Amino acid sequence: MKIRLFLVLLLSVLCVNAHADAWDTEYAAIESSIQNVRIVDKVYDITKFGAKSGVKGSGKKNQKAINAAISVCSKNGGGKVVVPAGLWNTGAITMLSGVNLVIEEGATLQFVFEPTLYPVVETHWEGLGCYNISPLIYANGQHDIAITGKGTIDGGGSNDTWWKWTQVERFGWKEGDYSMRESRKILQQQSEAGVPVAERRFTVENPMRPQTVNFMNCERVLIEGVTLLRSPFWVLHPVFCKDVTVSGVTIINNGPNGDGCDPESCDRVLIENCLFRTGDDCIAIKSGRNKDGRMWNVPCQNVIVRNCKMEDGHGGIVVGSEISGGFRNLFVENCQMDSPNLDRVVRIKTNTCRGGVVENVYVRNVEVGECREAVLKINLNYESREQAERGHVPTVRNVFLENVNCKKSKYGAYISGLEDDCQIHDIYVKNCRWEGVETGMNRIEGKSRKVVFEDVVVGN
User: Is the pLDDT of residue 1 over 50?
Assistant: First the structure.
């Protein structure tokens, strides 16, 4: 008995030391390695290119003017493309290297619901490669691009526009309206069948809802200060990007699949001082879905989240579920969460269609008023009925929570492992106070090992 106690204490000490070392070493290394955008201080006003504020039916004309300003700015070595105060209707915008799109205070960039103004481009949709109508603000293969300012980007999502494509009545769909469900199903089938991405084309005839901001294969990205409202789909979605900073951004998007910020297969990401109020996950880290994600095999890695506030959402800090390429090195600190419409605080979700390894998740100093389900949820059985090839067993390991406190929830920790394979291990929760737990308990099902709670209070 004494030997066993000694081994448990030794394990706890080693765990604490490893946790502390990661914050002193890996965290500091990630923070110092993130490169800032490099943009010259030269101004291009969109009104000089023919943009008109507050004019009904001006979406196409303003789209042409804004894209022209971006093109000239980039060709001349870069600078600031300024959207001044006023209401500016527009269609899709394509960012180019060296350009900072500045949405000034009092300006609203209003994206109109006219699908023909969104040309077909290469993108990712729920972790699968495809061609689809353009995200509202798009870039591919660019460097040193930014969206800044104190203005507003309004995606125009509502039950009368993009959201009703879900074929869900509470989001405005009515019998006879267009539904994108068949296109989504086709895309998933094409991925499973190995159809080349270039042949997975969804046009204005059969589109899927676009993201608000989607940057593909870009380096040195900054999104700062702006407010983003009513996205058709996910809000911020960088894919295969390096050195991404999201700072001081407000995201309010209560629509379907309304994720706030979803870095996918990115390296070196900083998300700080942001407010999230979403209809889905606030921050969701991804690395491709199923066969596509395993084929690309590009993990998302080296992500810092700090000083953020999460209100509504399915999860505050989430890894998955499209995580087939794996993930490593997440550092979360000094965040606040509180809403009866926030389901979980820290969530890791995946399944046996995905595969991949999720590891090295460090969370500290998070204060939560209430969440609906659990403070920590790890689920290897997410979307158990998904129609895709099974047998790709995921692993979740090395998860550390310290001083993560919550006043109200249903469970403390909810860990759902596989029944026949132990792939959740080395989970350490220390110095946490989970009060007002409705069930008065943690819930652990399926197989897991080395799930350690040290100085954790779970009470109702």
Answer: no
- pTM for this model (two decimals): 0.95
Task: Assign 3-class secondary structure to the chain.
Answer: CHHHHHHHHHHHHHHHHHHHHHHHHHHHHHHHHCCCCCCCCCEEEHHHHCCCCCCCCCHHHHHHHHHHHHHHHHHCCCEEEEECCEEEEECCEECCCCEEEEECCCEEEEECCCHHHCCEEEEEECCEEEEEECCCEEEECCEEEEEECCCEEECCCCCCCHHHHHCCHHHCCCCCCCCCHHHHHHHHHHHHHCCCHHHCECCCCCCCCCCCEEEECCEEEEEECCEEECCCCCCEEEECCEEEEEECCEEEECCCCCCCECCECCEEEEEECCEEEECCCCEEEECECHHHHHHHCCCEEEEEEECCEECCEEEEEEEECCECCCEEEEEEEEEEECCCCEEEEEEEECCCCCCCEEEEEEEEEEEECCCCCEEEEEECCCCCCCCCCCCCCCEEEEEEEEEEEECCECEEEEEECCCCCCCEEEEEEEEEEECCECCCCCEEECCCEEEEEEEEEECC
Q: What integer pLDDT is reported at residue 17 of this predicted model?
A: 54
pLDDT digit string (tens) for 377-421?
Answer: 999 999 999 999 999 999 999 999 999 999 999 999 999 999 999
Q: Which of 124, 237, 314, 392 is catalytic?
A: 314
**314 is annotated as an active-site residue:** yes
Contact criterion met (CB below 8 Å) for 167 and 179: yes
- Reported as a single tens digit per residue, the pLDDT across 124-153 is 999 999 999 999 999 999 999 999 999 999
Contact 354, 289 (CB under 8 A): yes
Check if the beta carbon of residue 285 is closer than 8 Å to that of residue 318: yes
Return the amino acid letter for 371. C
Note if 280 is an active site residue.
yes
β-sheet with 236-239: strand ranges across: 93-94, 137-140, 213-216, 236-239
For the chain, what is the mean pLDDT? 95
Which candidate in 144, 259, 262, 280 is catalytic? Answer: 280
Dihedral (Cα; 214, 220, 225, 231), 10-degree rounding: 10
Site of tokens 């737990």 = 437
